[in-house]
């Protein structure tokens, strides 16, 4: 049965400890050795007095010889005591250094077949073993810290009170925290209670509404106290790929079945119109057949557009001027003036046609949001494009002053749209283009303001694709 370090353990019967000795009245080791050595000198003093008596020496001579014997024995006792106590003091200093985690001290005179030498040798061996273990522990700790720091997945540790004790750089980036501020603070203060209450393997939405993370939970003990260790794995790309494949299969089946019906409908409608034209039949009947033929053709084009969405070609990467691509995108929007904030040009490896199409979709959405009825008067509509380089990626930001996004969780769901005439394809296509370039698309509402910000993140250096497919 395991107990926490802070859990008091109460036993039914309490046993008293047996004292090691009467330490208050007992003499110290040195005093006892000195006393025994003095007592051992009493027979010598008696022997000296007996010899002087047999030699019939005078009393002064007897006293002189007795004092000389006493003084000589005291010198011998001091020398013997020094030989006994000094090695013990040295060993005590070595043990005290070990207790204070200082393993550089060693006892001299360590050798076998000698009582004090054997003790010194064992203490030196213990010091060497502890030094090796400490070095291994330091290296293992440094390795663990380096691994945790280099991990792309957030790693967090909480103590039993719910206070944060460990946070790696990936966790700082995902949760927008800093170690200096976050360490030691409670989960409620950091707004991370959902992590503490989440189960192992639970799927959470962290950071961006479209980002999905799997929580892996385990436990460890630090200084006897049980801590919770959490690691988050980003499965957004995997889930989006599974979703894309599911939509691809659905569109393939629907396209096949609907086209099988649309083709004969369109053919029959055209044949009937031809025959009615020869017989000069009713105009209403002719107009009805024309509507059937026209709607069948529109529905066929609609399905072909979705089929093209699921067949995006592999991007052909080459260095392209980012400013030139943005200028072409701005020129294509004629409903309002899109302002392009000047900045340093950047050469980015990309498929210019695909990136241009992705930016056209984002600018189109921003323009429609700025011109919408909920946004206010059209003369105040504004769309602004900026770009900057952040670490090893280029970020293109498109901001509008529309009413903002109402549902951030369904942005990249195919066919989902909040616009009356929308098809729900633009953002999905933009996301696929970004992921094909090893980038991402992020959308968020303006904090403390009005409108939305769409960001296209592209790596500044992209490896050549080999056998990649969408």
Describe, in plain words, how this protein is organized in 3D.
By secondary structure, the chain is an alpha+beta fold. It folds into four domains: 29-136, no CATH class; 151-234, PAS domain (Beta-Lactamase, 2-Layer Sandwich), CATH 3.30.450.20; 239-309; 318-459, Histidine kinase-like ATPase, C-terminal domain (Heat Shock Protein 90). It contains eleven helices and twelve strands. The strands form three sheets. It has a five-stranded antiparallel beta sheet with strand order 2-1-5-4-3. Strands 7-9-10-12-11 form a five-stranded mixed beta sheet, covered by helices on one side. Strands 6-8 form a two-stranded antiparallel sheet. Helix 2 (59-99) packs parallel to helix 3, helix 9 (322-332) packs across helix 10 and helix 10 (352-371) runs antiparallel to helix 11. It is rod-shaped. The model is unreliable at 1-15 and 462-470 (pLDDT under 50).
SSE layout:
Elements: H1 29-54, H2 59-99, H3 115-150, E1 155-158, E2 164-167, H4 169-175, H5 179-182, H6 193-197, E3 203-205, E4 212-222, E5 225-234, H7 236-279, H8 283-309, E6 318-321, H9 322-332, E7 338-340, E8 347-350, H10 352-371, E9 383-390, E10 393-400, H11 426-436, E11 440-445, E12 452-459
Parallel strand pairs: 7-9
Antiparallel strand pairs: 1-2, 1-5, 3-4, 4-5, 6-8, 9-10, 10-12, 11-12
């Amino acid at each position: 049965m395991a107990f926490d370090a802070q859990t008091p353990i109460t036993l039914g019967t309490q046993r008293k400890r047996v004292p090691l000795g009467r330490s208050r009245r007992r003499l110290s080791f040195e005093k006892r050795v000195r006393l025994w050595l003095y007592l051992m000198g009493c027979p010598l003093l008696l022997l000296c007095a007996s010899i002087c008596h047999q030699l019939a020496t005078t009393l002064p001579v007897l006293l002189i010889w007795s004092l000389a014997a006493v003084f000589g024995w005291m010198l011998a006792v001091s020398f013997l005591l020094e030989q006994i106590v000094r090695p013990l003091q040295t060993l005590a200093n070595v043990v005290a250094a070990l207790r204070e985690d200082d393993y550089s001290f060693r006892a001299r005179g360590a050798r076998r077949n000698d009582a004090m030498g054997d003790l010194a040798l064992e203490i030196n061996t213990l010091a060497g073993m502890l030094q090796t273990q400490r070095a291994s522990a330091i290296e293992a700790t440094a390795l663990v810290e380096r691994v945790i720091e280099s991990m792309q997945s957030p790693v967090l540790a909480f103590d039993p009170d719910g206070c944060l004790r460990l946070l790696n750089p990936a966790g700082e980036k995902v949760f927008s925290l800093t170690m200096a501020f976050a360490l030691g603070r409670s989960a409620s203060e950091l707004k991370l209670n959902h992590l503490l209450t989440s189960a192992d393997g639970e799927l959470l939405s962290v950071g961006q509404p479209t980002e999905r993370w799997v929580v892996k939970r385990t436990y460890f003990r630090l200084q006897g106290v049980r801590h919770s260790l959490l690691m988050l794995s980003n499965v957004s790309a995997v889930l989006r790929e599974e979703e894309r494949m599911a939509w691809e299969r659905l569109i393939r089946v629907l396209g096949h079945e609907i086209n099988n019906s649309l083709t004969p409908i369109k053919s029959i409608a055209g044949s009937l119109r031809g025959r009615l034209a020869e017989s000069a039949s009713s105009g209403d009947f002719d107009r009805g057949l024309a509507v059937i033929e026209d709607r069948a053709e529109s529905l066929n084009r609609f399905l072909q557009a979705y089929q093209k969405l699921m067949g995006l070609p592999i991007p052909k990467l080459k260095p392209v001027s980012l400013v030139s691509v943005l200028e072409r995108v701005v020129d294509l929007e004629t409903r309002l003036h899109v302002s392009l904030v000047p900045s340093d040009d950047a050469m980015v490896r990309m498929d210019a046609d695909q990136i241009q199409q992705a930016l056209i979709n984002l600018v189109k959405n921003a323009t429609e949001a700025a011109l919408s009825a909920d946004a206010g008067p059209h003369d105040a509509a504004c769309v602004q494009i900026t770009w900057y380089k952040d670490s090893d990626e280029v970020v293109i930001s498109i901001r509008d002053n529309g009413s903002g996004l109402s549902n951030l969780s369904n942005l990249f769901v195919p066919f989902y749209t909040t616009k009356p005439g929308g098809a729900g394809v633009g953002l999905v296509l933009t996301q696929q283009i970004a992921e094909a370039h090893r980038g991402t698309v992020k959308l968020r509402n303006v904090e403390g303001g009005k409108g939305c910000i769409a960001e296209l993140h592209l790596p500044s250096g992209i490896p050549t694709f080999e056998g990649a497919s969408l």
